[in-house]
Structures are given as structure tokens and as C-alpha cells.
Amino acid sequence: MTLDGEDDPAAQLPRPQSLMFSFLGIYVLHRGVAVYSGSVIDVFARLNVSEEAVRSTLARMVKRNLLTRHRRGRKVYFGLTPHAADVLKDGRRRVWETGAVNRDWDGTWTLVGFSLPDSRRSTRHDLRSQLIWNGFGLLQNGLWIAPGEKDVTDLIASLELGDHVTVLTAGAFKPTETADLVRKAFDIERIAGRYRAFLTQWDVPRPLPDAPDDLARQLLLHTDWLQLVRQDPHLPAEHLPPDWPAIRAEQVFQTLAREYETRAAEHAAAILDELPV
């Protein structure tokens, strides 16, 4: 990703809300503070995100019960709701604990089967989207699988599916081979392509040389990486190619994250106006 997109017409900055989640996860979560909207605008100006886009993003996140407003004088500060804190904690777990490479798989698959009438076509679409987001792949018509044990209770309840869905855990037995399940249910080349694109952007001597400082690089790096691991079904490493690009990509992310951390924090401290909450 380039900062301005001119070097690559297909390149686009992450959506402002994705960048906002990265910013909040690094500089607000677990700190007991709310941040002044004006200082958030100053941070996002480093990413070429307009004031209008920042204010619109903050307003939408308030409506979605992700942020709360706090006033001090004429200033408006934004803090996290418990729901937002849970979302950000999940993102942190995916980045720093779950990671990109599944080396601990125990051979268990979670299976989700469903059959919905055409009258619930919209719900069927929402369910498929949520299953993909949660690491499931389509094995065959109406049957989705994901490695490991996945708790989809809240997902099913939120869509009011009830008896329309069956959830099981199982292992592969002959003549079914695990490698075949991985190949049939998941687009391995597409997943690998995302990691290769990340490496093209970040595995270079000076990533994003046009970025104004390491605060901008940090937020872009974390946003790129979180979007990547959220789209990764976390397939078992032993059934992936030995040169699986996620291995190198994770090393690059962790190295750069540590490299940017100190200077980014210094820039943030000089910019952010905070209110204890």
C-alpha cells in the first residue's frame, strides 16, 4: 500500500474505521482515557485522512456503541465502550497470540451445516459472510468447516437461525484426507497471495519512505496485519506448503512493530490530548 496510491493505481489506503481500530487498540485500550477529537484528527492527517472522514468515522462508531462522548469545556473526547474494548481485545489476541501460523492444531474440525428457504436469502448471505469472517470454508453445498473448535453460538443467535443450523466437531477418517479438506474448502493460493502482497509492501529496506513518521507507519502496519490475520482461516501448518508466506510475513510484522513502537509512542504523546475516564 502506498500513502497516496499514485505508484500503484490499484493500491488503496485502509478504510478510516480500520485505521481507527488500530489507533484505539494501541493508544486507548487499557489506558483508561478518552482522546480529544482534534488530536485524533491531527494523527490521522499523517495518513492523509481528512478531518471530515475522521469526524464521520467517530460519529458512526458512537452510533454503533463502540465509542462514548465526554465533554470538557468546548472539547469533545471519545472513549471506548465495553463492547469496543472486547472487539479490540479480540484483535490484539489475533495479532499477538493466535498469530498467522497454526502449529498447534489437534486434528479437530468444526462443521456447520444449514438449509434455509429462499424467503431467508438475506439471512443466508449474512450467515455465509459471518462464517467466512470466522475462518470457515465451504466444503460442499450447505456444509462449512473450520480447523479447531469454533464457538458459533453468538453468531447463530444473532441471526435467529435456531433449528436451521447444525454444529458438530469431527475428525477426518479414511478415505477422507485432511489435505483434501484444506484444498477443497479453502482458496490456498488466494490466502497466500494476501501474504505475498503484505511482504511486497513491508519486507523491504525502508517501508513507506514517504510516510511522515513512524506513527503513521505503525498505524498502517498494524491495520494491514490485522486485516490479513482476520481473513486467514488459520489452517494447520502441516497441511500447507513448506514455503508458506505467512511465516515470513509474521516475522516481518513483529520486527517492524517493535522497531516503530518507541518513536511512534513519542509522536503520539506529543499530539494526543487525553481525558481520564
From TrEMBL:
Organism lineage: Bacteria, Bacillati, Actinomycetota, Actinomycetes, Streptosporangiales
Domain Transcriptional repressor PaaX-like C-terminal as annotated: residue spans: 186-269
Domain Transcriptional repressor PaaX-like central Cas2-like: 103-182
Name of the encoding gene: paaX
Location of the Transcriptional repressor PaaX-like N-terminal domain: 15-82
GO BP annotation list: DNA-templated transcription
Protein known as: PaaX family transcriptional regulator
UniProt cross-references to Gene3D superfamilies, sorted A to Z: 1.20.58.1460, 3.30.70.2650, Winged helix-like DNA-binding domain superfamily/Winged helix DNA-binding domain
Source organism of the structure: Nonomuraea glycinis
Highest taxon in the source lineage: Bacteria
Record InterPro entries: PaaX-like_central, PaaX-like_N, PaaX_C, PaaX_trns_reg, WH-like_DNA-bd_sf, WH_DNA-bd_sf
